Amino acid sequence: xxxxxxxxxxxxxxxxxxxxxxxxxxxxxxxxxxxxxxxxxxxxxxxxxxxxxxxxxxxxxxxxxxxxxxxxxxxxxxxxxxxxxxxxxxxxxxxxxxxxxxxxxxxxxxxxxxxxxxxxxxxxxxxxxxxxxxxxxxxxxxxxxxxxxxxxxxxxxxxxxxxxxxxxxxxxxxxxxxxxxxxxxxxxxxxxxxxxxxxxxxxx
Length: 204
Hints:
- Helices cover about 35% and strands about 30% of the residues.
- The protein is of the alpha/beta class.
């Protein structure tokens, strides 16, 4: 397990070196996107239209930020992660079509996303839930915002960040899924405890 400071756009070979349990900090550009934005991205692609941001080598952050507008600029007040499994139906296609190298969120993602990470050279990382103010403190400015018609939480917020993290690599480009490992270990411990309890009951 290592700690890495990476700059966007992320290089495929660098991302391929990351493993579950690694800690990553991102400097450069990240783009927020939740389920409505994921759905629209793929609709645009199906119609042969370009989306308004370039995600090649990019980082998607599952986040619906709280923002404030001052004059002609936006300020991010809090920017905590959204539960990522909401995007499971879309993420594999987004990684494949747009060349995304890192997805950030909370709560883990499923088999389809893990397979896409393995096939196309991407990772999924988690940001600590309940640390929305910390996340916002790493955001230097809003570079642009797109698709505000979806609503502020669902829009594409293009953010300049510095040392954004700590991010825990939870799915790596080999397809390994840290959360699945944790659940498997928990199940083994639970089964072991149940066996011991059953043995005690049988000796009474």
